[in-house]
Amino acid sequence: MKFTKKLSILVCSLTTAFLHTAVITNTYKSAAQAEEQNLITNGGFETDPLVDPNDATTSNPTITGWTKSGDPLDTTLIKISNFPKSGNQGLSFGGFSALSYISQTIPTVKHQYYKLTYYLASTEDTSDANNKFQVFIGGKKVDVDKDIAFQDYTPYTLYFQAKGALTEIKFGCRVKSAYLYMDDVSVQALPEQ
What we know:
single chain; Jelly Rolls; 193 residues; alpha+beta; disordered N terminus; 5-stranded antiparallel beta sheet
């Protein structure tokens, strides 16, 4: 009888330990899954609907996850557009007097390496191209493009090392005669080497 009681306690303990291990193991993402996660909120600009899907010139002031800054006249021209790279919507930049900005602060791990990817298109004619597009990471200007003539969505990739627990991703733009469009913004952690 004592043997049966000890055996049932042992089996019960082993079964409980196995179940706890299975449950705990399944609750965490693998390192590969964590590295593939996009840290940008609303990088495809799909969260907020167009104010009028039939009129892309009707500005939607709401861009969830992003903060606009700069001259108020120019920031009103940063809006959701119906000219996407993927999905149904993208973002258009149309500020013409000064640089206007859109930014987002993301969680990062100090000293971890990351990859920022975005797609940029221009509708400016080659002869009239008079624009400037800047990228800032953690407050530091890391890329400047000037006079981007007509181009379909083109991928851009920048790599950076986080300096702290939070990192600001910021885009600045000025366009004199047409629009620049951005879509599919992502930041992903790179595997540790």
